[in-house]
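name: query_chain
kind: protein
chains: 1
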Amino acid sequence: MKKFLRSGLSVTLGLGLMLGTQVARAQALPVIPNAGFENWSPRTIQGLGGPLTYQAPVSWDMGFFSSLLAAFTGQAPKFDRSTTAHSGAASLRINVGADSIGADLITQFPVNRTTAGITLWARNSVVFADPDDSGYIITLFTRTRSSGQIDTVAISGGNLRTSVANTWQQLGFPVLPLQAITPDSATIYMGNPGGVLPNFQTYIDDIAFTNTVPMGTRDASATAAPLTLSPNPVSSRTTTAPTLTVPARASGRAALVLTDALGREAGRVRMHELHVGDNELPVPTAGLAAGTYLVRVLSSEGTRTTRLVIE
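structure:
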């Protein structure tokens, strides 16, 4: 939640806040493991047809989509180590084949702070005419309570579209803070599971956190269709979850985050697969006290927010 200085604060306090911001920016950034995809190792997954061995980047592994295909169809993930690199000797290449199916990856690692943004270098073998074909990245900063509950501290995400084919371009995604607490873990989920267009490649290299909001980042949510929630308000005694309608111009993964008015997480982050058109997602409200809540959806179209009132 953004906090603004109110009138009446002393100049000394204002200077102190400015200095505090400068000190925060000087803090060391969290390290993303194997961010340049230089190191790879063999992995094995047990599928219906027996064990399947494949190569994966060290500290990364298949996402849900690729794991499902591997387990039930015996299909190895469609990513590999490429020597077409932005820097170093290698990059990650995702091959979308003739069947228009690609791959996804995920990593989780410890952190001790949030950041202002995340950047990466991307290269696509085509310029996408259909947004369904673009890949995406979602980043979650989380903290695990002593009770075992996982709170989402901040989120970030967007699509991996580039404006020119076969050219490396740097993409940047701002991080949206949700709670003023320190995270202990970060999860990065990304990929290009495919869409309509067959036979192309998406390359990814040099992922990094940044202390400043990435320049030139366009908030796609400014042009995205708004969310609608029904019923709203909802009774605290009801057992039926309200329905959130999420219009989507592109298929892909989305994170649904529910927080109270102070930004504290009111429910676990729910991941959903969106299709083109209107998507109806349940918003779990069981056990929540009366009050005003914020419902956020993070997808390749940006971050969209609507309010939920529980009476």
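note: The first helix runs from residue 11 to 26.
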